[in-house]
């Protein structure tokens, strides 16, 4: 891809961040395991940079059973101790974040049991169609929205942890529930072709 390609400024020059921006961010997700992966990673990100979490992604994949919620839901206290004792490069060794991943796996399974899939649950808040924004500057992108507020409250009521509205909005961006690529970014139009959007502004 040529040097003249315009991307969202947050992607920077880090190869992992650029790859994530170009291949994943904003692409509509309809796979429960991918949703669960993002829930774990975004909860771990709280207070940290996304670049830090991306560098640990393989470590998380290994530590959290390839992001299989059924396996993670069976983690016991000894598993939590094992995870917080891992090398710092593997995962964020914050006990509350590790424990929240296990709790979220159990809450995730409960949603699947009730509604058939987590994907169906999440997209229902948007009637199945992504929000397509037309931001021209990074400063215009909000950290949270009324929709992320509603999802956050509902998740918390179902026993999920580390699901504040800002974290939920990050999930919406990552999983393509909202297209927040800048209009100048080459991915804005490409992502928009993934499905029929619902325009909001």
Task: Record the SSE blueprint.
Blueprint: H1 15-23, H2 32-45, H3 50-55, H4 57-63, H5 69-73, H6 77-84, H7 95-115, H8 118-124, E1 131-132, H9 146-157, H10 165-174, E2 178-179, H11 186-192, E3 198-199
Parallel strand pairs: 1-2, 1-3
Helix pairs in contact: 2-7, 2-10, 9-10
Task: Characterize the largest beta sheet: strand count, sense, and whether it forms a barrel.
Answer: 3 strands, parallel
What is the tally of helical segments? 11
Which strand-content bin applies to the residues?
under 5%
**Element order, helices and strands?**
HHHHHHHHEHHEHE
CATH-defined topology: Endonuclease III, domain 1
Tell me the structural class. Answer: mainly alpha
How many structural domains are formed by the residues? 1
* Shape estimate: globular
Regarding quaternary structure, how should these chains be classified? single chain
CA(first)-CA(last) distance: 30 Å
The CATH architecture can be given as Orthogonal Bundle
Strand element count: 3
Write out the strand line-up for the largest beta sheet, numbering strands in chain order. Answer: 2-1-3
Helicity, in percent? Answer: 40-55%
- Low-confidence segments, ≥5 residues, pLDDT <50? 196-201
């Amino acid at each position: 891809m040529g040097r003249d390609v315009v991307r969202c400024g947050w992607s920077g020059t880090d190869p992992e961040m650029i790859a994530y921006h170009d291949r994943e961010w904003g692409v509509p997700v309809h796979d429960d395991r991918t949703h669960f992966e993002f829930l774990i990673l975004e909860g771990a990100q709280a207070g940290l940079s996304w670049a830090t979490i991306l560098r640990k992604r393989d470590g998380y994949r290994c530590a959290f059973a390839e992001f299989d919620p059924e396996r993670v839901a069976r983690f016991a206290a000894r598993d939590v101790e094992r995870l917080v004792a891992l090398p710092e490069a593997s995962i964020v060794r914050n006990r509350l974040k590790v424990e929240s991943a296990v709790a979220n796996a159990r809450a995730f399974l409960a949603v699947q049991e009730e509604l058939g899939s987590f994907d169906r649950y999440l997209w229902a808040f948007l009637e199945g169609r992504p929000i397509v924004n037309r931001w021209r500057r990074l400063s215009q992108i909000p950290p949270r929205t009324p929709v992320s507020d509603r999802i956050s409250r509902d998740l918390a009521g179902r026993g999920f942890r580390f699901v504040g509205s800002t974290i939920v909005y990050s999930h919406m961006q990552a999983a393509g529930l909202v297209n927040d690529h800048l209009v100048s970014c080459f991915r804005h139009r490409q992502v928009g072709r993934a499905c029929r959007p619902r325009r909001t502004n």
